[in-house]
Design brief:
The protein is built from three helices and 43 strands. It is mainly beta. It has a single domain, classed as Pectate Lyase C-like (3 Solenoid).
């Protein structure tokens, strides 16, 4: 059902998902590997060009339906679903008793994913906005599960809300799948549970998330009464395998681990590699506002800034013994060299050497490092970064690591953090 306003075309679904039996099972189901592009005017003619800034196409759950978009397309060699230049809004995932539907061997939970649910499928989400969705259990914005492979490119996951005490994963919840997020904003998502912006977790299967050139900001787990939740920006849990490159974490809030919290268990370890990123001005009610590293985890951090965060204790990082590697880092007011040793005679002041989150060029807002800061010259060269990432499988595109978050070359520089100072 299309509703046409000036420069805005809103579609509300009318058909139930495969196997659906409840009124709220109505959704936009994508059950085949097709391409769906929005941003055209209502009466587009041949030759029209997609222009989502001036012609927003909205798929809306109207706060009536469990999932605004449900992707059930089968895996087919050389084929995928592509969703481009579309806003996905106003889904309302059900309560924990809403039940499930089995589609193509994947269990679709009615209580997850107000915005978009993706099970098993191969999907590209390009230039899209997933916003203003809610969940009465988990994954208010997006839920990716059951071995799906999803690329989010130039997209925003923003303003989604978990609205009950136990809600986890406000922006995106990745379980037992592979997700790339490239040039994305994950902002202003809130939950009462854990993982305000991003949540990765599985009970038994490796779960991969690659965050490149993206900003995670203003997310919170403090929407409810609990003050002990973790991972305002990103909660990395059991079986997670995470890479964070050229990315910014800013003004996220939680009980513990305002920016990032990493949690594992024996035999269910979680791993995070952070390269050329900035974690600044995050807040924790209890401790560890920047990066919280718990037992049965591994954090390897290179050429990154974790500084200027706010908590009663351990404002920037707390880690269990033997869980972290630091190389060419800023931690608090200290500069660390290649071996993680403090550089004598150098001091970092985040209040004068880092700016606020703003438009410094590029698609995402970032934090500019002062050119007079010692962190502008005591980091890794482009050559060192290339050597570092040559060890990774799958490989990291050299075009990512040899540039900064806004696309400026790192050649001839050795700046620490997500953005090379101008």
């Amino acid at each position: 059902m299309p509703l046409n306003f000036d420069y805005l075309l809103i579609y509300i679904p009318t058909n139930m998902v495969s196997g659906g039996s409840q009124n709220a099972d109505i959704t936009f189901e994508i059950h085949s590997n097709v391409t769906l592009i929005g941003g055209y005017p209502a009466n587009a003619t041949d030759g029209a060009v997609s222009d989502p800034e001036n012609n927003e196409t909205v798929l809306s759950g109207n706060k009536e339906f469990y999932h605004t978009v449900t992707i059930t397309a089968p895996v087919e060699n050389g084929k995928k679903v592509t969703i481009q230049n579309i806003s996905i809004k106003n889904g309302l995932a059900g309560t924990s008793t809403a039940g499930t539907i089995n589609i193509n061997g994947a269990v679709y939970r009615r209580s997850y994913a107000g915005g978009m649910m993706i099970g098993k499928s191969t999907v590209d989400v390009i230039g899209c906005k997933i916003t203003e969705n809610e969940s009465q259990q988990h994954a208010a914005g997006v839920y990716v599960f059951a071995g799906a492979n999803v690329n989010f490119i130039n997209s925003d996951i923003t303003g989604n809300k978990g609205i009950v005490q136990s809600s986890n994963g406000g922006g995106i919840f990745n379980e037992s799948s592979t997700v790339y997020m490239i040039n994305c904003n994950i902002t202003n998502n809130t939950v009462w549970g854990v993982g305000g912006g991003i949540y990765t977790y599985s009970t038994d299967t490796p779960t991969y998330l690659y965050l490149y050139n993206s900003t995670v900001a203003y997310n919170s787990t403090n929407a409810g009464s609990s003050t002990t939740r973790r991972g305002g920006g990103f909660y990395v849990r059991e079986f997670s395998r995470v890479q964070i490159v050229n990315s910014t974490f800013y003004a996220n809030r939680s009980g513990y681990g305002g920016g990032i919290s990493i949690y594992g268990a024996a035999g269910k370890e979680a791993y995070v590699d952070m390269i050329s990123s900035t974690v600044f001005n995050n807040y924790a009610i209890n401790n560890t506002a920047g990066v919280d590293v718990l037992a049965s985890t591994t954090l390897k951090a290179y050429n990154s800034i974790i500084s200027g965060n706010d908590a009663p204790s351990y404002p920037d990082i707390q880690s269990v013994t033997n869980t972290t590697t630091h190389s060419y880092m800023v931690i608090g007011n200290q500069i660390l060299d290649a071996s993680g040793t403090v550089v004598i005679g150098q001091t970092f002041d985040p209040l004068t050497m880092l700016g606020g989150l703003t438009n410094n060029g590029g698609r995402t807002e970032t934090i500019m490092l002062s050119i007079s800061s010692p962190a502008a010259t005591l980091g890794m060269t482009s050559t060192l970064l290339e050597t570092l990432v040559s060890q990774y499988t799958p490989s990291i595109d050299l075009d990512v690591v040899t540039k900064d978050q806004i696309g400026n070359s790192r050649s001839g520089t050795s700046a620490i953090g997500a953005v090379v100072p101008k």
